[in-house]
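User: I've been trying to design a sequence by hand for this structure and keep getting stuck. Would you show me what you'd pick, starting by listing the structure so we're on the same page?

Assistant: Good idea, let's start from the same input. This is the structure you sent:
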């Protein structure tokens, strides 16, 4: 007996008539797992609730910002206090100065900061800075790394670009794409060869210091240090795209965790507390090349928006006030989760790899380690699809793609983690 369509299904069909794919960002459309995405009505703590009234333990966390959980009272309170003063002025505010100072205090490679309204704008600006400063046009990125959707980065990109099978998007002029030089993630020899083959041509190397758009792939020992040395040797700028890892894997980001300081850092997600944000951070010498102090142009109507800045300040201050406790709790919760999942899968001899760095993790159905995009693509995607929907039916929401990282928040208590492990146990016989 066919049941009447759910609210999610009705909304998805309606959405597809007025929004491409029914979504405002492709990965939300469930392209790689199939089915109907839940339309979310509300969220609180570690749970989201859809338009059918069903709740899920959420490991997407809006793709990273919700490190303290959804609708955190300190963040909502900060937005509520800012709201009556107006939503946007197009003029400098004190709060933007405070946020820039907080980021500069905590990001090792930062003396100055410029805010934007998305991670894409931040990485786009970082590349323009590197090109403007060096006078060179080519740059190196890694297969499967995703740096937002600016033209130059949509070559062998990860995340939604990989999910929908277009890692190199149409619409990017060949002449521009040619300036994007590619290397496999974690392959220092490939980077060395590009530099040797193109002396004086490379403006920058941009890297996700922990790849989060292939799924979660940590750097192999020496990889980041090697990039730092090669950039210094060849006069190129090293850009750490920490839009995802910034304030996520360590209070000082991946650069704090691994002790490698880039020339430019890009940030997003957590620094806006879930409101639209991006940021470029670097030394005074680099940043003062940006307009109006320097010739390299960059701008944005809503950059430093008062509500985004209020939310970002509240989140960064909450994280800093209780650093040890919060990051310790994130580590323990994420370890409890991945140890529990590994136990369930190992008990059924299901080959898997469960990489984790702090509270970001992913799951590949593949016995061998995943070191790059090719390894990730070789994992069993069908098994992931069965797992994804099996968990969703049992009230657990993973990211709807094997090429995404999952996030544990400080709101994922032992109960939620154990409930998740039990859901894995229930689905495991079907994998
Ligand atoms: P935004 O333009 O989406 O704010 O940031 C782009 C970006 C830049 N750099 C890194 C390392 C990123 O992970 C992102 C965006 N992350 C994806 C999730 N993997 C956003 C989700 C989406 O595209 O809807």
């Amino acid at each position: 007996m066919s049941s009447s369509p759910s609210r999610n299904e009705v909304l998805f069909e309606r959405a597809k008539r007025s929004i491409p794919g029914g979504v405002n960002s492709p990965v939300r459309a469930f392209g790689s797992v199939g089915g109907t995405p839940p339309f979310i009505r509300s969220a609180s703590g570690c749970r989201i609730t859809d338009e059918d009234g069903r709740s899920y333990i959420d490991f997407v966390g809006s793709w990273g910002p919700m490190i303290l959980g959804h609708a955190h009272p300190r963040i909502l309170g900060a937005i509520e206090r800012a709201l009556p003063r107006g939503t946007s002025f197009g003029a400098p505010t004190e709060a933007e100065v405070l946020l820039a100072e907080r980021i500069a205090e905590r990001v090792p490679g930062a003396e100055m900061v410029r805010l934007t309204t998305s991670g894409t704008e931040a990485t786009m600006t970082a590349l323009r800075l590197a090109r403007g400063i060096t006078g060179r046009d080519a740059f190196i990125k890694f297969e499967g790394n995703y740096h937002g959707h600016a033209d130059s980065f949509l070559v062998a990109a990860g995340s939604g670009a990989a999910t929908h099978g277009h890692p190199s998007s149409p619409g990017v002029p060949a002449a521009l794409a040619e300036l994007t030089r590619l290397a496999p993630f974690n392959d220092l020899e490939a980077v060395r060869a590009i530099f040797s083959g193109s002396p004086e041509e490379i403006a920058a190397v941009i890297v996700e210091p922990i790849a989060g758009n292939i799924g979660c792939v940590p750097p192999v020992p020496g990889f980041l240090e090697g990039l730092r040395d090669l950039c210094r040797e060849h006069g190129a700028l090293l850009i750490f795209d920490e839009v995802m890892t910034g304030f996520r894997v360590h209070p000082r980001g991946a650069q704090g965790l691994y002790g490698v300081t880039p020339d430019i850092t890009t940030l997003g997600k957590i620094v806006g507390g879930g409101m639209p944000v991006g940021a470029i951070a670097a030394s005074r010498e680099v940043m003062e090349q940006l307009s109006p102090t320097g010739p390299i142009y960059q701008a944005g109507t809503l950059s430093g928006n008062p509500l985004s800045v209020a939310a970002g300040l509240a989140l960064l201050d909450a994280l800093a006030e209780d650093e040890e406790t919060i990051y310790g709790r994130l580590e323990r919760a994420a370890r409890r989760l991945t140890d529990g999942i590994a136990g369930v899968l190992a008990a059924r001899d299901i080959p898997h790899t469960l990489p984790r760095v702090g509270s970001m993790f992913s799951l590949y159905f593949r016995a061998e380690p995943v070191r790059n995009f090719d390894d990730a693509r070789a994992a069993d995607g069908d098994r992931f699809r069965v797992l994804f929907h099996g968990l969703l039916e049992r009230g657990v929401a993973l990211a709807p793609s094997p090429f995404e990282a999952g996030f544990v928040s400080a709101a994922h208590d032992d109960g939620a983690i154990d409930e998740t492990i039990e859901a894995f146990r229930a689905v495991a016989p079907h994998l």
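That's my pick for every position. To get oriented when you compare it with your attempt: The mean pLDDT is 96. Residues 7-71+322-430 form a domain with the Aspartate Aminotransferase, domain 1 fold (CATH 3.90.1150.10).
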